[in-house]
Amino acid sequence: MYLWTSEFVSKGHPDKVADQVADAVLDAYLAGDAESRVACEVTITKDLVLVTGEVNSLAKPNIEEVVRSTLKHIGYDRPETGFDVHRCEIINRLHAQAAEISGAVQKGSRGGELGAGDQGMMFGFATAETLCHMPCAIYLAREIIRTLETERETNPDTPFFPDAKSQVTLALRDDGTLDQVHTIVVSACHRSKYTVGMVCDYVKELILHTMIPNLPEPRLREAFDKAQYLLNPAGAWCEGGPVSDTGLSGRKIVVDNYGADCPIGGGSFSGKDASKVDRSGAYAARHIARNLVAAGLGSRVQVQVAYAIGLIEPVSLRVQVEDEQCIRDYSDQVRQCVSLTPRAIIDRFHLDRPVFSPTAAGGHFGRVPKGDYFAWEKLDLVDVFRSWK
Q1: Which of 38, 149, 335, 357 is the residue whose CA sits 20 to 30 A from 160?
Q2: What does the alpha-carbon distance between residue 340 and residue 173 come to, in Å, rounded to a whole number?
Q3: Residues 350 and 261 reside in one and the same domain
Q4: Are residues 261 and 367 in the same domain?
Q5: In terms of Cα–Cα distance, which of 325, 321, 324, 291 is closest to 304?
Q6: Average model confidence (pLDDT) for the chain?
Q7: Separation of alpha carbons 41 and 50, rounded Å
Q8: What are the pLDDT digits (tens) for 130-186?
Q9: Could you give the 3-state DSSP secondary structure of residue 268?
Q10: Are residues 257 and 366 in the same domain?
Q11: How far apart are CA 251 and CA 248, in angstroms?
Q12: Backbone angles phi and psi of 266, in degrees to 5
């Protein structure tokens, strides 16, 4: 038996606020020009939002309007939250993309073939532990945050401000299967009129009577029987968000991926268009991994793909499929039937459209695909992969 932990953060966490602003800027450019090349980085702190990065686009969105609309949607729209969208300063330092990078990426005319926007390696992962094929620890940590956010957004009397964090520790058997949920940690920023005890009781009630009964997997619902709860362990937390902790885009990359269960390449997602393979390559790798698990080829799949800047094809691909008996390599089979060029990935998932803002909070993987959104979660390769059994 051993313990295993993953965490998650809410959309009001300062780093996630920065991610949401960065992806809103990206979507604004794509809405006006599908061939926009954007690498937007955001810093947010007390009364200040700094938008930086490189852009190559025919579109000219109103960046200040995009930023204020995003902050208002998150819930930072009044003084009591500590960060007021109506009173903050917004500095736009976006500038033109370097000509050398632009020339390396764009192969011929707009809309044509693309080289990778950078070098690097990306990972995709899927597991049969949950119905959405996400690791159990980060899945449960995410569900806690999702439950708190739904309550905050639908109940005007909720004590919660937008900023919150969760952490779930599992007790796993030696073979890696779930024995029980060991510890749940939640820190929720709250209005000062609520005591810590009131907030803790509120959070525990939501977990016990809203989240757990709605988990689709019976074995997960049963695993909470002996869980211990550490709720707002530091005590009262009435000042959160960017006013108390500076937020930077691209700093919650483990939360964005698979928690502690899979390596990550190190590249962040938010604010980057799909020519940046640290985003699109990771989406493609997840798509392959999830379809392989859904096809029944294994219980855990890890995919690594790597690129060199300016080159169209990836420089390496490794597809490892694990079941109870062994680990098999499906790299050659996947390479023959799934194109991993940047243009093929963009076309397959419609990544030249403004589909990125919803990914910036709530995780990039394990979400329900709808239309062009989260298209990399679709199970549209299952029949092809199943034929390999």
Answers
A1: 357
A2: 37
A3: yes
A4: yes
A5: 321
A6: 95
A7: 8
A8: 999 999 999 999 999 999 999 999 998 899 999 999 999 999 999 889 999 999 999
A9: coil
A10: yes
A11: 6
A12: 105, -20
**Distance (Å) of CA 228 to CA 171, 192, 274:** 12, 26, 42
Q: Does any domain span residue 109?
A: no
What's the predicted TM-score (pTM) here? 0.96
Q: Mapping DSSP to helix (H, G, I), strand (E, B) and coil, where does residue 44 land?
A: strand
Please answer whether residues 126 and 286 qualify as being in contact, where contact means their C-beta atoms are separated by less than 8 angstroms. Answer: yes
Examine residue 343 and state whether it is found in any structural domain, yes or no: yes
Pairing of strands 228-231, 178-190: parallel
- The one-letter amino acid at 203: V
* 114 is a domain residue: no
Range of the structural domain that residue 203 is part of: 2-9+136-241
**What is the number of domains present in the chain?**
3
CA angle 53, 59, 62 (to 5 degrees): 70
Of the three residues 179, 213, 241, the one that is the final residue of a domain is: 241
Residue 112 lies in a domain: no
In this structure, how many other beta carbons lie within 10 angstroms of the beta carbon of residue 191? 14
Domain CATH for 326: 3.30.300.10
Q: Report the C-alpha gap between 368 and 370 in whole angstroms.
A: 6
| pLDDT band for position 101 (cuts 50, 70, 90) | confident
Euclidean distance between CA atoms 355 and 26, whole angstroms = 9
User: Can you read off the two tokens belonging to residue 80?
Assistant: 């009591």
